[in-house]
Amino acid sequence: MSRRIIVLISGNGTNLQAIIDAVQSGTLDCKIELVVSNKESAYGLTRAAQANISTLVFPLKPYKDAGKPRVEYDVDLAKKIMSYNPELIILAGWMHILSKDFLEYFNGNIINLHPALPGKFDGAHAIERAYEAFKRNEITNTGVMVHKVIPEVDKGQPLLIEEVPIFESDTLDDLEKRIHSVEHRLIVRGILKFFEDLNQ
Ligand SMILES: Nc1nc2c(c(=O)[nH]1)N[C@@H](CN(C=O)c1ccc(C(=O)N[C@@H](CCC(=O)O)C(=O)O)cc1)CN2
Ligand SMILES: NCC(=O)N[C@@H]1O[C@H](COP(=O)([O-])[O-])[C@@H](O)[C@H]1O
């Protein structure tokens, strides 16, 4: 029976595309029940539509404009997602910090793809920050991880970690390309590992 997954995005959706490709090739025995974006402009929504996957655009701005707290947005989003009865929620470039109120709906069955090593560059803009740190001779490499999602941002237990080298000749674009190619592989392996661990 295919596993029911939901993918949350905020932008281009190249990692979503990697998941779609893996499902279509049979690498992942999953059904993407829904793709959610908090940004209407996210190209990942186009990628989902082209793959005949249901989409939901759910921006935070109307809540902010109405003076409603973020937690109300999070709870309303959780209830919408719950209605699809997912077995796993994947944050693939989802750029919104989720409250514990959201997380509590899903019993820990949420994973996130983060372009850094554990405890190194938690939060947004991790690739740029790693590149700058390398230029300051503070680090010699960086990496990518897929981790469980907990309230503390990017502090959840890693499922998979892969180091990524940085070279003196690298531009930021070189490093971003190298990291993205690792991400596209790791996100698929991370989903496989999540369900393998579930079966143990
Ligand atoms: N409770 C958790 N929520 C999220 C996690 C997590 O581990 N725990 N991972 C992030 C993904 N992420 C890094 O991997 C990340 C994304 C965004 C931000 C951030 O600062 N977001 C700002 C808004 C930024 C923007 O809109 O450009 C915010 O939410 O106010 C930090 C880390 C996803 N959520
Ligand atoms: N903290 C999470 C984070 O920073 N994720 C970053 O957002 C990009 C999304 O790309 P995509 O929309 O093409 O998948 C990913 O490449 C990743 O580096």
What does this molecule look like?
The chain has 200 residues and is α/β, with parallel strands linked by helices. It has one domain: Rossmann fold. It has 7 helices and 7 strands. Helix 1 links the parallel strand 1 and strand 2. Helix 1 packs across helix 7. The chain is globular and about 50 Å long. The structure holds the ligand Nc1nc2c(c(=O)[nH]1)N[C@@H](CN(C=O)c1ccc(C(=O)N[C@@H](CCC(=O)O)C(=O)O)cc1)CN2 and glycinamide ribonucleotide (GAR). Ligand LMY7XDAE binds next to strand 5. Keywords: Purine biosynthesis, Transferase.
Strand content: 15-25%
The order of strands across the largest sheet is: 3-2-1-4-5-6-7
Q: What is bound: which ligands?
A: the ligand Nc1nc2c(c(=O)[nH]1)N[C@@H](CN(C=O)c1ccc(C(=O)N[C@@H](CCC(=O)O)C(=O)O)cc1)CN2, glycinamide ribonucleotide
- The H/E string reads EHEHEHHEHEHEEH
Q: List low-confidence stretches.
A: none
Report how far apart the termini are.
Answer: 17 Å
Instruction: Please count the helical segments.
Output: 7
Averaging pLDDT over every residue, what do you get? 97
Count of domain modules:
1
